[in-house]
Amino acid sequence: MHVTWLSSVTAILQFICPDRPGLVSQLSGWIANHAGNIHHADHHIDAGAGLFLSRIEWELEGFALTRKLITPSVNNLVEGLGGKAHLYFSDEQPRVAIFVSKQNHCLLDLLWRYKSGELPMQIPLIISNHQDLEQICTNFGIPFKYIPIVPKKKSASEKEILSLLKEYKIELVVLAKYMQILSGDFLSKFGTVINIHHSFLPAFKGAQPYHRAWDRGVKLIGATAHYVTEDLDDGPIIEQTIAYVSHRDEVEDLIRKGRDTERIALARALRLYLRRQVIVYRGRTAIFA
Amino acid sequence: MHVTWLSSVTAILQFICPDRPGLVSQLSGWIANHAGNIHHADHHIDAGAGLFLSRIEWELEGFALTRKLITPSVNNLVEGLGGKAHLYFSDEQPRVAIFVSKQNHCLLDLLWRYKSGELPMQIPLIISNHQDLEQICTNFGIPFKYIPIVPKKKSASEKEILSLLKEYKIELVVLAKYMQILSGDFLSKFGTVINIHHSFLPAFKGAQPYHRAWDRGVKLIGATAHYVTEDLDDGPIIEQTIAYVSHRDEVEDLIRKGRDTERIALARALRLYLRRQVIVYRGRTAIFA
Amino acid sequence: MHVTWLSSVTAILQFICPDRPGLVSQLSGWIANHAGNIHHADHHIDAGAGLFLSRIEWELEGFALTRKLITPSVNNLVEGLGGKAHLYFSDEQPRVAIFVSKQNHCLLDLLWRYKSGELPMQIPLIISNHQDLEQICTNFGIPFKYIPIVPKKKSASEKEILSLLKEYKIELVVLAKYMQILSGDFLSKFGTVINIHHSFLPAFKGAQPYHRAWDRGVKLIGATAHYVTEDLDDGPIIEQTIAYVSHRDEVEDLIRKGRDTERIALARALRLYLRRQVIVYRGRTAIFA
Amino acid sequence: MHVTWLSSVTAILQFICPDRPGLVSQLSGWIANHAGNIHHADHHIDAGAGLFLSRIEWELEGFALTRKLITPSVNNLVEGLGGKAHLYFSDEQPRVAIFVSKQNHCLLDLLWRYKSGELPMQIPLIISNHQDLEQICTNFGIPFKYIPIVPKKKSASEKEILSLLKEYKIELVVLAKYMQILSGDFLSKFGTVINIHHSFLPAFKGAQPYHRAWDRGVKLIGATAHYVTEDLDDGPIIEQTIAYVSHRDEVEDLIRKGRDTERIALARALRLYLRRQVIVYRGRTAIFA
Lengths: 289, 289, 289, 289
What we know:
4 copies of one chain form a homotetramer. By secondary structure, chain A is α/β, with parallel strands linked by helices. In chain A, 33% of the residues lie in helices and 28% in strands. The longest helix of chain A has 24 residues, at 251-274. The A-B interface holds A 1-3, 5, 19-26, 28-29, 31-33, 35-43, 45, 47-48, 62 and B 1-5, 19-26, 28-29, 31-33, 35-43, 45, 47-48, 62.
């Protein structure tokens, strides 16, 4: 018999500070002092940067502090350690907006995983610059907003989007084959965006990576799920997957094979995010999985 | 600049006990109380078994206890927690005996990795039931003992081997394509043995897995590095690797492709062992890598 | 510019006979004599069995024989060579019945790939022993037949199924997580059935492979798409995929990770079948991809 | 029983010409007309380029033409078809010179595979710009030439190397971690050079790819075996391999893991070359494996 203990509600602390002795003890001591039972604790030292990163997950049941009291107590602890922290509760599922254009493979894959329970999130909103995928969203009962992007009015469209993200209390935007570039201004106002790029970055940044991969005659193609930053395709990488190709594969075959790697890289990255297993720092990620 | 902090000497504690709140805090608190700087701390809860497993590694430099005093202090701690523990020091490299027969690919691979610094161990002894590989061992300056195994005198040969393992203070035996089955009696006297089996276990246990894989028409072959137990090929698995094959591959091609998967699975498993990243329990392994 | 020549209609010949000199020349000569332009020609010699296998695909446009005249001409050729052959036309898409039970991941994946053009087939019929997935099929506009299987009336149910397969002119049955065992009697009457088994066969034949994989402590799991024969899980293997797992993965994680490998193995195998790239012989497959 | 028919001597024809109907028939017809038994025949049409590529391998035993007469007959055939061809005999093993600098992992791997029969070649010569690996070569009984490269005298050193390649009748140069760039002048005089680059090209061309991969925070690293052209790291790709990495991996770990991918990519590419399975055209390769 395998116990499904993960179904119990947990608190999750992501913590980062300059490395020094005693940090694990201080973090776990705070939990023990409040009778917390740790489910998962993992730490990483980036020696080059002199940084200590930690992710600790513990049961709320039996914990001495109520949910409301945890936050000030954590803040107190973190301040004392001179670090930065995020606190999450496993039953407060992130509110995620998915952005799409015309291609449906990533969207359908995410919706299927969402329905099957693989992705612990809420999807209050799907936004697209095209109307092609509206029916799919309607079938799943998810509000679909059509916001076309025309070059001269891009700024207005982005404002409209930002307003929706605020209205729907969105925490994370997932670009599931959204074929528009978000402006630096947009990103400065809403910064938590995950994209799927159809190459193993940093190879083939930018447009038409499969065509360029074919032209180069590579023997493998890939996909990269990464945080979006103002520098195109240069954001912190969360997950990368690859597929082997041969001289028999035309560009269309690369596109077809690529869809599977894109779906899997994006789904894995999103799941890692949703379970609070990703810590971003200094342009890179630590994955506590 | 990337700091090679791993070159500093560390102590490594492997710990296992029934799960309950406070264990991480108690272990890390003990280290913090002695001014230890944790390099790596990782824990696992096997919820079905109700067990807590932990591996903690910390710097010896600056630690308040001398090496001699650590052991009784750890024993005291562990006893108080009702668990079992192993304590290691990173500069006390395990003494490993490699057993071989006629095939040289795993032996040469291990020796190359050993020379290149990938495998932190000592190799005081290589034992074989054939003389084919003696020259290789001599070239590397490693004592080679030829101990033939004949059916009627197997027991005497195993006694001779056990005597050598004792004499050379061997901690681990690695079967690098040793085509003999160690008896239950042998294993009861020397139990820490890692083997490489040329299939993805539990498929194709026993003899001639590549021939049987070909006959079955599989599309992938594999290799499994595992601890040896009296039940043939049923011991705890440390590492598994695979290679794709096609209908064009003859048995000889499976054998050729398989050599690469064998070399890599065995080398990875051995490195995990040597770095004290493997905890064996209940017929399985937890890998803290 | 990449020419999409595959969109032209082709004839595909699968051929098998005892190996001897001149076979490639005789097959390709027959095509050349009728002004055929070969798109793809691939051959394999199973030296142990003394067999020659071939797959040749050529353009119908410009071919000297009309579609009706090709068959007798091919029969004549094949008879002269003492072999067996199958002839297909790329625009005559196979009629496939999908069998399901309660799990939807393989079904949805196949339907999505079907809609996206990855799987050149017709799906006139979906059969299930449960009603859970009826809505999905209805949404896709595909007739859904609910045929429950109760132990004492299994024979009658299978007759009903056979009758439907005949009525709908089904060429291939795909078991997309159909949790029933087809009887030998059924298979003797309808033999072309592809199944997805959730392990890398021959490991973990039969029921609950993920639970048994967890119990065994394997470091990788897999999925196998294979032809169904009366010997359970012993039919010719078409495709196998794997996923890495760790001690942190519970049985539910193996099931979750396994769904992806199942979806991909089944989709690949089906695509190979539909493009007439699979030749089955002597309990195994040759894949001309 | 598995017949090792590959041990028989074969002729191998690599052929390339503009695509048109009848080519397979004409090539295989020529073989059949001389009573040849084809072991392997594979073709590829690059539709975008309008090119037909073919590799045919047939037994010499029983072939109507003696080895001396095959060449003029092939030339006649090829000229009539307006194509280009290369003819090889499987028992005439290529003469390969290996170039190395200080790192030994690729060299030792190639030498081991050579000794074990995986790589059907002769190695009459190893050249290095350092003396570090001389002993290894001497142990294997292979002539080692130390030709240091100093910036101002590079041209003279390359002349010396070219002279050696001529003297030793070298067909192929393998750069097994040779840390020098061959000049365009050198390559114009000796053009068949295979290199191993330690990244999945086109990512991280040039120097220190592992350091740059670490800085970029990638989740996978790779190696690329490719033909050398004057444009650095832009030559036709033969083989690519990858390894997964995590935030826990320091640069040294990337280098360590990378060694395995480098060894395997280079060994595979070399084996493909030696078996005449690689056709290079238009800056890319077709692999007939």
